[in-house]
Amino acid sequence: MTSINSVTRTLVRVSKAVLKWSLIGLVSVATLAFITESYFKAQNAKHFPAPGELFQVGEHKMHIWCEGRGKPAIVLDSGASMFSSGWRWVMPELASSTRVCAFDRSGLGWSEVSRPPYDGINAAHELNALLVQAGVESPFIYVGHSLGGNLGGIYHQQYPGDLSALIMLEPGNPEIFLQEIGEERGAVVVRGKPISDCRMRCVIMAFVSSLGILDIALAQIDAANDPLYHPQALAEYKARINRTEALQFLAQRGKYLTEIMFQSADSQEYGDLPVAIFHSENAGELLGDSTSPQDLIEDREKGVRAYASALTHTTHSLGLTKINQANHLTMVMYEEPANQVSARVLEIWQQVRE
Fold first, then answer.
1. Each residue of 303-343: pLDDT tens digit?
2. Which residue has the higher pLDDT, 285 or 171?
3. Residues 265 and 176: beta-carbon distance below 8 Å
4. Alpha helices (H) in the chain, listed in sequence order
5. How do 60-67 and 100-103 pair as beta strands?
6. β-strands 317-323, 53-57: how paired?
7. Quick one: which of 337, 32, 57 has its CA closest to 170?
8. How far are the Cα atoms of 74, 76, 142, 185, 274 from residue 345, in angstroms, in the given order?
9. Which of 52, 62, 90, 338 is placed for a possible disulfide with 111 were both Cys, Cβ 3.0 to 4.6 Å?
C-alpha cells in the first residue's frame, strides 16, 4: 500500500512539473511571438506611412489620399474590409484628368476608430465632414466598390446635392441579402456596442493580432497573395489590416451590416441623379468550389437583373457596364480590369462635366 502511495505521489509531482514547465514554455513562446509581432508591426508602421493626409473628424482622425487637379472631383469608396490602397491601379489613371480622392472609413487603413454607430448614415456624416476638411468641393462623382456602392446611395440620401453622379461597382443587393439571412422589413436590428464593450470577441481579435495568427493565415490564402495584385497595395493591406484596432473594429462593425442593408434598401430612389453600375464578367467566382457552375451562372444572371432594376430608380440611368475577365475583387485589384473601370469612369466624368 505504501509503495502504491509513493508511486502515486511521484506521478502527481511529475505531472505538476510537466504542467508547470509546459505553461512556462507556452508563456515564453507566446511572449516571444508577441514581441516579434510587435517589432514587425512597428516596422510596418515605419515602412508603410499614410499616402495621404489625416484630418480631425469629431473625436478621431480620418485618412484621405488625393491626387490630380480638376472638377468635378472623384471620390473612391472601398469594399467592406478594404481601404484606399485598393485603388492603386485606378488612382493614377483618374488623376491624369481630374482630382481623385480615396479615403479610409473609420477603423480601416490609416483612419482611427470612431464611436458607434457604425452604420451607413453615420458613415455618410463622417465622410461629409472629412471632405469638407480636405477641401473636396461638391458636386463630386462618388465611385463605390461593393459595400462602398451601398454607402454611396446612403450618402446621396443624406446629402442629395453633393453628388454629380453615382457609380457603383457590384454593390450588395439589399433585398437579396436580407432575404437570404431571413430578415424582413421592420425587423428590430440590434445595434452594436462600443469597441470597449465587445468583450470576448475583442479579446480573441487582440490575441489573433498580437501573436501573428492572421499573418500565418493570410500566407496560406491564395487570394491574399495573388501576384497580379498591385504589389504596394497588397503590402499595405497586410500591414494595416493586422492591427488589433482594425480587427476589433471589423468584429464590431459586422453587427451593423444588416442595418446598413436596410438603410441601403431605403436609399434607392435617386431622382435625376446620373447612376451607373459596373459588374464583373465572373461575378460570384469567389464563392468557392462548393458552388456549381450552373449556380454561378444563375447567380450572375440574378445579379445583373437586380442591377438593371436598380437603374430604374433614376431618371438618368448611365446603364450597366461589364468589366471583362474579372471577378468581384479583381475588377479593381488587377491592372487590366482596373483600367477598364478607370476608362469608363472617365467617360462618365466627361459626360457629367459637359
1. 888 899 999 999 999 999 999 999 999 999 999 999 999 99
2. 171
3. no
4. 2-47, 90-95, 120-134, 147-158, 174-180, 199-210, 213-219, 231-241, 244-253, 257-265, 293-310, 330-333, 335-353
5. antiparallel
6. unpaired
7. 337
8. 9, 11, 10, 34, 12
9. 62
**Residue 288 corresponds to which cell in the numbers above?**
468557392
Residue 206, C-alpha cell as written in the block: 487582440
Dist CA 289 CA 81 (whole Å): 23
Q: Give pLDDT tens digits for 253-272.
A: 667 788 899 899 999 999 99
Q: What is the CA radius of gyration of the chain?
A: 24
Contact yes or no for 278/327 (Cβ under 8 A) = no
**Residue 105, C-beta contacts closer than 8 angstroms, at least 6 positions apart:** 62, 77, 78, 83, 111, 123, 126, 127
C-alpha torsion sign, points 104, 193, 179, 224: positive
pTM: 0.81
| Cα dist from 284 to 234, 327, 328, whole Å | 22, 7, 7
The DSSP code sequence of 5-67 is HHHHHHHHHHHHHHHHHHHHHHHHHHHHHHHHHHHHHHHHHHHS--SSEEEEETTEEEEEEEE
Q: Measuring CA to CA, which residue among 246, 271, 11 is closest to residue 166?
A: 271
Measured between alpha carbons, how far is 101 from 74 in angstroms, rounded to an integer? 6
The span from the CA of 26 to the CA of 12, in Å, is 21
Distance of CA 144 to the CA centre of its chain: 11
Torsion sign, CA atoms 75, 78, 82, 86? negative
